[in-house]
Structures are given as structure tokens and as C-alpha cells.
Amino acid sequence: MGLDLSTALNMFLRQSIVDDGMPFHATRQSPTSAQARREAENHVRTTQFILARTGTHDQLY
User: What is the mean pLDDT of residues 43-57?
Assistant: First the structure.
């Protein structure tokens, strides 16, 4: 955006006052990472379910 640090910081601070908080949603994960984590967790649950029902890995692959 071509801003110097002082201008960018002032904009951030002023917007924080207007928003009465952070002017953006702070997250630790990107949406892609969050989706990959959900898919991995679903795979683990599915695997555990199949193993609990069949007692073998035969239906997994």
C-alpha cells in the first residue's frame, strides 16, 4: 500500500479505537490449514469407527 511504518501504525491504532478492538479477525491458522485439519480429524474418526465395527483394516483401503 506504500505506507511508512508510522502512518500504518497510526491507521491501525485509530481503527482499533473505532472498532473498539482489533480491526481484523486474528487467527492462528489459515482457512486452508483449518480445512485440512478437519479432514484429517474426520479420517481418524472414520478409521476408528470402521475398526470398532469390523476389528480389521480390510475395509479401510
Answer: 79
